[in-house]
Design brief:
This protein has 1116 residues and is mainly beta. 12% of the residues lie in helices and 42% in strands. α2 (124-131) runs antiparallel to α3 and α7 (1018-1039) crosses α9.
């Protein structure tokens, strides 16, 4: 076809080929629609009741891409037309029929054409259109969704179909494509080569498919497709069909179908069913003929149900549909004068209704009948297991019960029914043959009418229902077994809480589906009386329904009832029997009551036993296994619990608490009761377990604590052991006491001396300890005057003693050695604390306790030195001087040593003989605290003429310095060595001075004293004197000038005492009457006197410094 330009004015024909006739609007339309959008969908052919008489061409057509060009011939163009672009317009008429151009190179017409014609259904053009688009989809043609390509391929095939006719010399054609004249390339590039190749493949397929169907006719079709035939429960038949309808293209096409069914020798209603609904039905007439019609939907199953056939029957089925068409051509002639093309379309033209028929056969039916056996109850329950024998009636007349030919035996099912097999119509007799043991048999023969007249009267139903047959039941029997509902055992626990006895009743001779009521209660086997708890009988009532399966003993069924005991505590040790009774609760047609009872006090199966648990316990100290514990903060009690009559394998809990026997109240720790819990599972009914509890017992000293235990099962109390007077449950918390006596180790008395090595022995008397345990006593010495600890070298005087008593009461000694010289005249008190495992059990800290107190004595000395009761002594080589020492506050019975030494007041150095200091020693044992002792000094007085000699004293106890007296100015301790025979009257002696030894370093004294005490020989005395002289000389040399020291060491003759002027408090000058002391040099020697005076002064100063330092050391 040519491209055209559509305007409001008449079409102007342009003589040029190709695009010269296309209007601007035609060019714009594809642009507006988009090149990829399908303007027209695959619609397929349209159905027409008749050939349209007119066709209206659209003012605009959809122009496809130009996929090809071709060489053509046109009579109107004057001959050959080479390389003509293959322009094609796609359009439909007003009915939607897809139109195709039959003449290339001509223009698409417009407006209305009132002349049409019908093509022959078998012609080649119809074959092309049946094989092309839209009779086949673009997908079927391989064009995907490209309807333009599918249309174009079909258009080319139509052109080539008319062109091939022109090639054969048909004069009716004015334009055609030359043979082999198609060029498979888009002339204007509007289509890609791939698109052109796709069109080519579709074109070739259309031509090939058309060649296969040339000369054939395509019409609608209908077929009755048969399904299964089955027999119905009533003995009829059920046949399934499907009316399959297809359109002329051979595709399934839904259509309404009229079904007509006819049959003969049928006895009831014939039905047509589709989608589960009856769409048509009819009853057979008196001759058994039936006709039924219905409308069904094609291509879906429908079912024909026919009743049982009295004789062999044929059922005919006919299916008809009015939806019937044939595919044919429909054409519009062109207008050569206007160079307008002829057009052709494929339509479905309506034809006469089409039908399909089928038939099936129904064999003659056999009759059967149902029998139902029921009981005598008002509910008419079925009786299964009843057997009947079936006979033909001896006489084939209605109501005859004489037995003829035996047919067989039948037994009712669980619903009480049985149904016979297929039987010929006639008269029969039923006789009850066997019944289950729980019902009575009924031997009465029953006549059954199964004649054709009965079937007809039954509406053609070949199933005959025999009237129901009733029987009476046997009495019910019951047996039972009682068990613990928890575990199925025969033993229950007498807990302070609920327990349940399960009564399993086993019934026989029950009636199927019958309701029953059972009552059960518990009885005390010992008394035969019902068990009551809080005045209420332990019983239960239950209803149940028997099952629907009966055997030889009717329905056998187990029924469980639970007897709930709210509190089983009172049943401990009892044997309990379960009783039961009951009856059927449904009324019967004859008024009979079916009851049962089971009450046997000696039935072991019905008997259960309640345990009577017992607990026996013993509480002991975990460490000692005794019943005594100590008042510490971590005491552990082990409670051994012996049990009886428990159930092995069960889990129990023992809960315990400690009670204070004195108060009857629980033992408390931190505001909470001291409790313990033990969970255990016994392996036997009797045994023992151990439970322990650790607690703080220090507040319960001297109390008896009793362990109370409760036994629980499932949180319910089962047994109690709470006897406040049970000795086995009782542990005693000891009340440790400590009484002490402090004493001097040496004397055993409560006095110490102010020495640096005093040993105090503390005897600790204890009570209520636990033998075999290890304790520690820690002591400290307290100064009563200050209330503070006695200190030595900055540390407290303490002691510690660890011991293990062999009995609860006893004593232990502990001692401490310390320096007591700072504490003379003080009372010292010993505090003791008793510990167990570092825990303080008891303390003894009484500052006023005399037995804990020792007194540190305050010894004093008052001394007088004289020679034959004279203070002025004539110098002699064998002078003697007695030192009378008056002492106070010594300890009677102790042996003391007094050691004195003579000191030269002038020099402050010891008096010596042959270089050895003069020492006098005496041992004595006072019988009283106060007394006197005398020591005698033997010395050479000549070297000391004019000198005052002073006695120093040191009192020792066992080598320890008790006190010492060392005062160069003490006149009572002084004598004067006269250098003439003149008697000198001395002034009265001043008061003596007591110097308490405060020297912490008494090694020399101890050594010397030891030497003096142990050996009184002259050699030892000499040695001791030499040692003392050496020590004193050393001390003096440290404190005096070297010159003085040298003079003393060289035994220089001392100057005349008269020439010495002593400083106060160092040397007291003696006053002599009426004489002048002898001189050691010339009176005129002034220089010598001055030198002598200076020397004496230096020596005296050195002696004073020595004494001063010695005293200072002693006071430290």
């Amino acid at each position: 076809m040519k491209k055209v330009t559509v305007q409001n004015e008449p079409v102007v024909v342009n003589e040029r080929k190709g695009l010269k006739f296309m209007s601007a609007l035609t060019m714009a339309l594809p642009m507006l629609l988009g090149t990829g959008e399908k303007v027209f969908a695959d619609t397929g052919y349209k159905e027409h009741d008749s050939i349209p008489t007119s066709v209206t061409f659209p003012q605009q057509a959809h122009q496809t891409k130009t996929y090809v060009s071709f060489d053509a011939y046109s009579k109107l163009e004057g001959g050959n037309v080479p390389n003509e672009p293959g322009v094609a317009d796609r359009w439909t008429d007003q009915y939607g029929d897809q139109m195709f151009c039959t003449e290339p190179l001509l223009y698409t017409p417009k407006g209305q054409y009132n002349q049409t014609y019908a093509g022959t259904p078998t012609q080649g053009m119809v074959a092309i259109l049946r094989s092309g688009w839209p009779a086949k989809s673009s997908q079927e043609l391989g064009c995907g969704d490209d309807a333009d390509a599918a249309f174009y391929a079909t258009q080319l095939a139509v052109w080539m179909e008319t062109s091939s006719d022109a090639w054969k010399g048909n004069p009716g054609h004015v334009t055609w494509i030359k043979e082999n004249g198609i060029h498979w390339t888009s002339p204007d590039g509007s289509a890609s080569q791939a698109e052109t190749n796709k069109v080519k493949a579709a074109y070739e397929k259309i031509r090939a498919d058309a060649d296969k169907i040339r000369g054939t006719t395509a019409t609608s079709s209908i077929e009755l497709k048969e399904g299964n035939k089955t027999s119905t429960n009533e003995g009829g038949a059920s046949k399934t069909y499907q009316a399959v309808t297809k359109n002329p293209s051979g595709k399934l096409d839904e259509a309404p179908v009229q079904i007509k069914v006819t049959g003969s020798s049928l006895s009831g209603t014939t039905k047509i069913i589709q989608d589960g609904k009856v769409v048509g039905q009819a009853n057979a007439d008196g001759s058994g003929n039936v006709t039924v019609s219905a409308n069904v939907q094609s291509n879906k199953d429908f079912t024909i149900e026919t009743p049982p056939a009295v004789g062999n029957s044929t059922v005919s089925v006919n299916a008809t549909t009015d939806k019937s068409y044939v595919l044919t051509g429909f054409g519009v002639p062109g207008n050569q004068e206007r160079k307008e093309q002829a057009s052709y379309s494929l339509i479905a033209l309506k034809t006469k209704p089409i039908s399909a028929a089928s038939e099936y056969h129904v064999d003659a039916a056999f009759i059967k009948f149902n029998v139902r056996k029921i009981d005598d109850r008002l509910q008419t329950n079925p009786l299964p297991g009843v057997t009947f024998k079936l006979y033909k009636a001896a006489k084939q007349v209605k109501g005859n019960t004489e037995l003829g030919e035996s047919i067989g035996s039948f037994t009712t099912d669980n619903n009480g029914y049985f149904t016979t097999g297929n039987l010929k119509m006639g008269y029969y007799v039923l006789v009850e043959d066997k019944v289950p043991s729980n019902i009575k048999i009924n031997k009465t023969p029953i006549a059954v009418d199964a004649s054709s007249a009965a079937v007809k009267a039954n509406g053609g139903n070949l199933t005959i229902n025999v009237p129901h047959i009733t029987n009476q039941y046997q009495d019910v029997t019951a047996s039972s077994i009682a068990t613990n509902a928890e575990d199925g055992s025969k033993t229950l626990q007498s807990i302070d809480g609920p327990v349940t006895v399960n009564e399993k009743l086993h019934f026989t001779q029950l009636q199927t589906n019958a309701p029953y009521k059972v009552r059960a209660w518990l009885v005390d086997k010992a008394t035969g009386n019902p068990i009551t708890i809080d005045g209420k009988k332990v019983e239960v009532e239950k209803t149940f329904t028997a099952g629907n399966k009966a055997g030889d003993k009717g329905v056998e069924q187990d029924v469980d009832v639970q007897l709930n005991i709210p509190n089983a505590k009172s049943l401990a040790g009892k044997e309990v029997v379960a009783f039961a009774e009951g009856e059927q609760t449904e009324k019967t047609t004859d008024g009979k009551v079916y009851s049962f009872s089971h009450k046997d006090i000696n039935d072991k199966n019905e008997t259960v036993r309640f345990t009577k648990p017992e607990l026996q316990t013993q509480a002991v100290n975990k460490e000692t296994d005794s019943n005594r514990i100590q008042p510490t903060n971590k005491e552990t009690i082990v409670d051994t619990i012996k049990y009886k009559d428990l159930i092995p394998g069960k889990t129990y809990t023992v809960k315990g608490k400690l009670m204070d026997k004195q108060t009857g109240k629980p033992v408390m720790n931190n505001g909470k009761e001291v409790t313990f819990t033990k969970i255990f599972t016994p392996e036997s009914s009797s045994g023992s377990i151990k439970s322990e509890v650790q607690f703080d017992a220090h507040e319960y000293s001297n109390h008896d604590l009793v362990a109370f235990e409760d036994l629980y099962y499932n949180d319910h109390q089962l047994a109690i052991h709470e006897d406040i007077n049970d000795k086995d449950q009782t542990v005693h918390v000891t009340h440790p006491e400590v009484h002490t006596k402090a004493a001097n180790k040496e004397t055993g008395e409560n006095e110490l001396q102010p020495t640096d090595g005093e040993t105090l022995v503390d005897t600790i008397m204890y009570k209520d300890l636990i033998a075999g345990k290890t304790y520690t006593v820690k002591g400290i010495v307290i100064d009563k005057q200050t209330g503070k600890a006695v200190m030595n070298n900055g540390k407290k005087v303490e002691f510690e003693k660890t011991f293990t008593p062999t009995s609860s009461d006893g004593e232990v000694k502990s001692e401490v050695k310390f320096d007591a010289h700072h504490y003379w005249n003080h009372d010292l008190v010993v505090y003791e604390t008793l510990y167990y495992n570092d825990y303080q059990l008891v303390a003894h800290r009484d500052i006023n306790d005399k037995s804990q107190t020792v007194h540190v004595t305050h010894p004093q000395m008052h001394t007088t030195l004289s020679s034959n009761a004279q203070k002025l002594v004539k110098a002699s080589e064998n002078n003697t001087a007695d030192d009378i020492i008056r002492y106070t506050d010594l300890i009677p019975g102790k042996e003391y040593t007094i050691r004195g030494k003579l000191m030269d007041q002038v020099t402050g150095l010891p008096v010596v003989k042959d270089g050895v200091p003069i020492v006098a020693t005496a041992r004595f044992t006072p019988t009283t605290k106060n007394g006197t002792v005398t020591v005698t000094f033997k010395f050479n007085g000549k070297p000391y003429q004019g000198h005052t000699l002073v006695a120093f004293q040191t009192l020792y106890d066992n080598g320890r310095v008790v006190m010492e007296h060392a005062d160069l100015d003490d006149m009572s301790e002084s004598i004067v060595i006269d250098h003439t025979n003149t008697q000198v009257v001395l002034p009265p002696a001043g008061g003596s001075t007591v110097i308490v030894n405060n020297n912490n370093n008494n090694n020399n004294n101890n050594n010397n004293s030891s030497n003096n005490n142990n050996n009184n020989s002259s050699n030892n005395s000499s040695n001791n004197a030499s040692n003392n002289a050496s020590n004193n000389a050393s001390n003096s040399s440290n404190n005096a000038t070297p010159a003085v020291g040298r003079l003393v060491s060289q035994k220089t003759v001392l100057p005349n005492v008269s020439t010495v002027q002593r400083t106060p408090n160092v040397v007291r000058a003696a006053t002599f009457s009426n004489s002048t002391l002898p001189q050691t040099g010339s009176s005129n020697d002034v220089i010598g006197q001055l030198l002598g005076l200076g020397l004496v002064t230096l020596v005296a100063g050195a002696a004073v410094e020595y004494v001063r330092r010695h005293d200072a050391v002693g006071l430290k």
